[in-house]
Amino acid sequence: MNVILIAVIVLGGTGIILASVIFLTAKKFWVFEDPRIDEVQNVLPGANCGGCAYPGCRNFAEACVKSESLDGLLCPVGGNDVMKSVASLLGREVVEADPLVAVLRCNGTCANRPKTSRYEGVSSCMAASLLYGGDTACTYGCLGMGDCVAVCQFDALYIDKETGLPVVDEAKCTSCGACVRACPRHLFELRKKGPKSRRIFVSCMNKDRGALARKACSVACIACGKCEQVCTFDAIAIKDNLAYIDYNACRLCRKCVEACPTNSIWELNFPPRKKAAEQEVSATKVETGKDTTTV
Amino acid sequence: MSMRTFSMGGIHPPENKISAGKAIEQVPLPAQVAILLNQHSGAPAVPLVQRGDRVKTGQLIAEAAGYISANIHSSVTGKVLKLDEVYDASGYRCQAVIIEVEPADEWAEEVVLNSTLKRDCTLSPEEIIQKIKEAGVVGMGGASFPSHVKLSPPPGTKPEVLIVNAAECEPYLTSDHQLMLEKGMEIIVGTKITMMALKVNRAVIAIENNKPDAIALLERLAIPYSQIDVMPLAVHYPQGGEKQLIEAVLGRHVPSGALPVVTGAIVLNVGSIFANYEAVQKNKPVIDRVVCVTGKSVKKPGNYLCRIGTSVQDLIDFAGGMPDSTAKVISGGPMMGKALINTQVPVTKGTSGILLMDGNEAHRNEVYNCIRCGDCIEACPMGLEPYLLMSLSELSEWEAMEKECIMNCIECGCCSYVCPSNRPLLDHLRVGKFKVGAIIRGRKNQ
């Protein structure tokens, strides 16, 4: 009985002394932190993906609270909804940003782009690209070893076994930009998601002359300029033997897709083309095609 | 038997010097040459010719762009077909001047064509360096660093000794060895001229001990030149590395991140020394070089003198054609060479050899887990811990890699060679070195 009592007194006493030391230290070194930082952090997704260009969600929350306006601050994962709640918490205005999505600008599938050598080294795009130009004649295209898949925190990328190319799952892609930074060939681009996820882009990054590009890959952009001519909105520019479609200027008319002789311009999530007589009908069908547009 | 060598790490792979002792043979002029504009480290040269121009052998066709760059001369007489991009040894496309070759050479006027030895040189050091610069001499061992930059050390440093790198530590390669046997006197004179350019009064020709004939010959030829020593070294890869060679010869360490010249040594490849001789005494720019074509199944392995821009395919054809068993064609030696993606790649100033490897030699074995045996640490000549660096690289821990001195890695491949689990250490180290290098450059630019 005595032993138990002594133990309780000794341990209890030590506990009280240490607790008061901790209490006093905490009081002495207490730092004021804006309580709104916690509030903002609570509405953020908490993915710590770095897509906002800050190391983590907490840092982004701090930046939001500290800055005068929310211009240039965007959580791509949370999107406009989250930014609105952040704005309402802080009593500030937020401009709606267009949602973005990652697109792969290469269509060099095994069928389109014949292999010219065999690679045996480490299965990493970065290691391979430092070693040589790639196992096909195209030195700009996808190496297919999945550095992008490895960095994607949202499970939005996978390598298609048949084509050997990564595929973006639009429903899961948060446009955090991790794949854009990871790809040694800079093949990913964050593009405007577009109405009903409809997008048009040049799926090629080959900057070789047309003849060389075409020889390496049957769907390469050869910079023939037909798309530039046919575009009525000045959205297409050719630079370094490569066409680029400005997604802010593009009105999704799809003329360039038809004009492209090598099929290097892609249209995504559009309804199938109708003949001119059926144009009116197709306008109504677009609505019903909604379910099939999301991948 | 205590031959000098470097102290830390290193390996001794099978030497396989199949083409040793084969006399240098002249390769006939090819029908077409592709002369790359970036045969050297630094900025690619700026072309001076246009499509349709007729060029003479030895004529300047591209000018150095900036300080670290080198002139490029036409290696043949003929008509410029086009300026186009061709694959280089790295597998990427680079600008090249493509020339249709005329069967008879018409040399540029200033080139002295006779092969008589010219010993005397009365030029000033500046004039010598200017001539070497004009001739476009670069490091002929593989790294292709412009020689005139090496010969003009930064202010505040004082070179004391010229080390002629004739180690040729890579297995298979024999081009430097054969060059020494056939052009011994020229190399001695070239060494003397390079010493004058550097204003040093000591030179050491460092040769690995597996070339006793070259050592004996150069020792005999160097007798009248009291300032030139020939030093035999133990056979030890990577002894041809600049830092390893300085340690082996002088016993001095090059500090991490410093230029080798702080030890007082300037290292030049023996091929570059010969090129210096030709540039200064014969006004002959670098338009040809000895390339050794070798491999266990090659019909006619040997040392071939070929014009810069000759395609690898032409060389292989001259050496008896490509054996059916070939699985890999490597430009350079087996340790540090680059596997080629096709045989149309042209020979450059830095191409020391073409190695054809059979399937069983070339392929990589199955990778197992690291067993922490430490062989890679023992083998690393720079004192790094490759197993740790590989793990850090896989985890993208670039800051930690920088602390572990990844930038000291010379990419010699000893770690991958000794690993009993066949781990691709060097591949991962290279990724880390590239990433850390980019981070360091970014920090400097801030």
Description:
The complex is a heterodimer of chains A (295) and B (446). Chain A has 295 residues and is α+β, with helices and mostly antiparallel strands. Chain A contains 12 helices and 8 strands. In chain A, the strands form 4 sheets. Chain A has a two-stranded antiparallel sheet with strand order 1-4. Chain A has a two-stranded antiparallel ribbon with strand order 2-3. Chain A starts with a helix and ends with a helix. Chain B contains 14 helices and 17 strands. Chain B has helices at 125-134, 147-150, 175-182, 184-198, 212-221, 242-250, 270-282, 312-318, 359-362, 375-379, 386-394, 398-403, 414-418, 425-445, and strands at 25-26, 32-36, 46-47, 54-55, 60-63, 72-73, 78-87, 93-101, 161-166, 203-208, 228-233, 265-269, 288-294, 302-307, 326-331, 338-339, 353-358. Chain B is globular. The N and C termini of chain B lie far apart (53 Å). The mean pLDDT of chain B is 93. The A-B interface holds A 116-117, 120-122, 124, 126-127, 130-134, 139, 208-209, 212 and B 85, 87, 90-93, 338-339, 341-342, 363-364, 424, 427-428, 430-431, 434-435.
Task: Walk me through the topology.
The complex is a heterodimer of chains A (295) and B (446).
Chain A: H1 2-28, H2 35-43, H3 57-66, H4 79-90, E1 100-104, H5 125-131, H6 147-151, E2 157-159, E3 166-168, H7 178-182, E4 188-192, E5 199-202, H8 210-216, H9 226-230, E6 236-239, E7 242-245, H10 255-259, E8 265-268, H11 279-288, H12 290-293
Antiparallel strand pairs in A: 1-4, 2-3, 5-8, 6-7
Helix pairs in contact in A: 2-3, 2-4
Chain B: E1 25-26, E2 32-36, E3 46-47, E4 54-55, E5 60-63, E6 72-73, E7 78-87, E8 93-101, H1 125-134, H2 147-150, E9 161-166, H3 175-182, H4 184-198, E10 203-208, H5 212-221, E11 228-233, H6 242-250, E12 265-269, H7 270-282, E13 288-294, E14 302-307, H8 312-318, E15 326-331, E16 338-339, E17 353-358, H9 359-362, H10 375-379, H11 386-394, H12 398-403, H13 414-418, H14 425-445
Parallel strand pairs in B: 1-14, 9-10, 9-12, 10-11, 13-17
Antiparallel strand pairs in B: 2-8, 3-5, 4-7, 5-6, 7-8, 13-14, 15-16, 15-17
Helix pairs in contact in B: 1-4, 1-7, 3-5, 4-7, 11-14
